[in-house]
Design brief:
single chain; about 325 residues; alpha/beta; Peroxisomal Thiolase, Chain A, domain 1; 5-stranded mixed beta sheet; 4-stranded mixed beta sheet; about 30% helix; about 25% strand; globular; binds oxa(dethia)-CoA
Length: about 325
C-alpha cells in the first residue's frame, strides 16, 4: 500500500505587517535595508487573537481549504495530525481543537519538531497510511509564532510570521502516479540551547522573574543556527540523493523551509538547484515554522508550478536541532 498527497490548503491571517512596523510602530533599532538584505523578508502576516485567530483557527481554515480541494467532508478523515510549537494552550492539542471545529471524527494529536515539523510529520503520517492504520489523514503544519515572539528583541521578532498549511495524505493504488517517498530525518539535541524558549515548562515554570526576563519567549543565536542550517541541509540532501539514487535533474521543484533567503540560496547553489526550480515565499510571509513548506507547496500549485509526475524535494532545518530531506511525486 502506498501513500500520496492528494490535496492541499493554506491559511494566512489578513493582517499584513511590513518591515516598517518594527521601527516605525515598535521603535526598534532596525531598518528595511537590514531586514531585506540579511533575511529576504519584506512583509509577513500576523494573527489577530482578538479575532479568534489562534493556531487551531488557522489549522482549521487550512484544513477546510484542503477538504474543498479534495472534494471531501470532515467526516471522511480517519485522523488529524498537527505539527506545531505554538498551541492555543498547553493542553489539549491543536489537533483536538481542530477536529472539533471541523466536526471530524477519528484520532487527533500534535507533533513537535519546530521548523522540521512538516517533514517529520509527513513521514509519520505516510507511515500510518502505508501500514493501513489510517486511510485518510489531514496533516497540518500550523504556527502562531507571534504568540511566542519577544517584540522587544530585534534579533528574532522580525523573522517570523503566522500561517497554516494542510495536506491530505491518502492510501492510493500502486499504479497511482503520486507517492510519498521515504525521508531522511536527523536530530542533534546538543543544539537545543541555540534556539529555544527557555521557560514555561517543568524546568522553569513561569513566575514574575521569568516574565521580567522574557524567558518565556523565543531566544536564538542566529549566526550559529545559520551556519548549521546551510551545512546540514546540503549534507542531508546529498546523502538522500545518494541513497535514493537521485540526481538534481530529477527534481522538478525544491521546496525548502523558509527561514532565511540567504540560507535557501546558499543551499540551492551548493546543491546546484537552479533558482527557477526553487520555491521562495519568505519575502511575503517570513518564517512560518511548520507551515512554511505546506503553504509554499499550496502556493506553488496555485501558480501552476506543480504537475503530475513531478518529483518535489522538501528540506528543512530547525530547533532541536532537527533537520531532514524528503521527496514526493505529485499525482493529482
Ligand atoms: O527556522 C528556524 C531556524 N532559524 C534560522 O535558520 C535562522 C538562522 N539565522 C539567520 O537567519 C541569521 O543569523 C539572522 C537573520 C538571524 C541574523 O543574520 P546575521 O547575518 O547572522 O546577523 P548577526 O546575527 O551576525 O548580526 C549582525 C549584526 C549584529 O550587530 P553587531 O553585533 O555586529 O554589532 C546584530 O546585533 O546585526 C545586528 N542585528 C540587527 N540589526 C538591525 C540583529 N538583528 C538586527 C535587526 N536589525 N533586526
Amino acid at each position: 500500500m502506498k501513500a500520496a498527497i492528494t490535496a492541499t490548503g493554506r491559511y494566512f491571517p489578513a493582517r499584513e505587517v511590513p518591515n516598517s512596523y518594527f521601527y516605525d510602530d515598535l521603535g526598534l533599532d532596525t531598518n528595511d535595508e537590514w531586514i531585506v538584505s540579511r533575511t529576504g523578508i519584506e512583509t509577513r502576516r500576523l494573527a489577530d487573537p482578538s479575532k479568534g485567530e489562534t493556531c487551531s483557527f488557522m489549522a482549521t481554515q487550512a484544513a477546510r481549504a484542503c477538504l474543498a480541494d479534495a472534494g471531501l467532508e470532515a467526516g471522511d478523515l480517519d485522523a488529524i495530525v498537527v505539527a506545531t510549537v505554538t498551541p492555543d494552550q498547553p493542553l489539549p492539542s491543536v489537533a483536538c481543537f481542530t477536529q472539533a471545529a471541523l466536526g471530524a471524527k477519528g484520532f487527533a494529536f500534535d507533533l513537535v519538531a519546530a521548523c522540521s515539523g512538516f517533514v517529520y510529520g509527513l513521514d509519520v503520517c505516510a507511515a500510518m497510511v502505508e501500514s493501513g492504520r489510517a486511510k485518510r489523514v489531514m496533516f497540518i503544519g500550523a504556527d502562531h509564532m507571534s504568540s511566542i515572539l519577544d517584540f522587544a528583541d530585534r534579533n528574532t521578532c522580525i523573522l517570523f510570521g503566522d500561517a497554516a498549511g494542510a495536506v491530505l495524505i491518502e492510501q492510493v493504488p500502486d499504479d497511482h502516479p503520486g507517492t510519498i517517498h521515504r525521508s531522511l530525518l536527523r536530530a542533534d539535541g546538543t543544539g537545543a540551547k541555540h534556539l529555544q524558549i527557555p521557560a514555561g515548562g517543568g524546568r522553569l515554570p513561569i513566575d514574575e522573574g521569568i516574565l521580567a526576563e522574557r524567558m518565556h519567549k523565543v531566544k536564538q543565536e542566529g549566526r550559529v543556527v545559520f551556519r548549521h542550517a546551510v551545512s546540514s541541509i546540503v549534507k542531508v540532501v546529498r546523502q538522500y540523493f545518494e541513497e535514493e539514487q537521485l540526481d538534481v535533474e530529477d527534481v522538478a521543484l525544491f521546496i525548502p523551509h523558509q527561514a532565511n533567503r540567504r540560507i535557501i540560496e546558499a543551499a540551492a547553489d551548493r546543491l546546484r538547484v537552479p533558482r527557477d526550480k526553487t520555491v521562495i515565499t519568505i519575502d511575503r510571509f517570513a518564517n512560518t515554522t511548520a507551515a512554511s513548506i505546506p503553504t509554499a507547496l499550496d502556493l506553488a500549485r496555485e501558480e501552476g508550478r506543480v504537475k503530475v509526475g513531478d518529483r518535489l524535494l522538501f528540506a528543512t532545518f530547525g530547533a532541536g536541532f532537527t533537520w531532514g530531506a524528503q521527496t514526493i511525486t505529485w499525482g493529482v
